[in-house]
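FIELD: query
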Amino acid sequence: MLAYILKRLLATIPVMATVAVIVFMLLHLTPGDPAALIGGDLATPEDLRRIREQLGLERPIAEQFLGWLWQVLQGDLGTSLFNQMPVSQLIAQRIEPTLIIGLTIMTFAVIVAIPLGVIAAWKAGSWIDQLIMTLAVIAFSMPIFLIGYLLIFKFSVELKWFPVRGYQPMSAGPAKFFPHIVLPSLTVSFIYIALLTRMTRATVLDVLNQDYMRTARAKGMATPRILAVHALKNAAVPIVTMVGIGLSSLLGGIVVTETVFAIPGMGRLMIDAIIRRDFPILQGVILVLSALYVLINLLIDLSYSLFDPRIRY
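FIELD: result
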């Protein structure tokens, strides 16, 4: 196991190196003069010269990349061009809402979707199966922003159960923290519940049709034990894979959610950086999210052996 972990960690080096090159080239592949894009239409020649010096654009591109890479390896992601704050500090301030909402979304989706998928597979072809699959298709087809505004209208405006917008950190206490993450988490959860429900149904249904499952039923084994111990455990690897992919690809949904609910997270930070053409922030956010993506995939791979003893590292 240790050898496999080390091997996978070494395999991430070329991946992160490729990401670093692409992220660095964002600044240089942008049409036109990056300094002019950052400075805007009202920038004077002196402003443009100062921006070029600040970004080091006057040096050879190889020297620029090596200097930037050395800073990154030391934990220095640069300085924001807009507010002159360290990018690492800005990311540290914004990463809590994104991670908490992402984990809440996937936890809620797993708790709801897996039982629904198992029930749909168990009752395959019945009205229960058709109802669950119909609801899953509807949930998966609805735009995230529409779900968010509907939840705001019902639970914030009409019922006044939750705040309309904003975020309170965990340090503020559960009474202030929890109400602010319920609606944002539910907004994106609908899509992942639908996706996981369909995946779970298809995987469990395939397992239920295996010979050893028919043998278990012929022996008179109780249905809950068949579904929970045998069917779900043997279907766990594809489901866990989908959970990992979903957790890694939550950024798109969270960006919209953070915008709708005015949550100061990583997605909102990235959108603000794009609008302001703050390339150091954009580079830092992409690097951090890429590292999280690689880490999540490593943890998912390692978890396979827990569900399938045939997998050995």
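FIELD: remark
Residues 236 and 307 are 6 Å apart (CA to CA).
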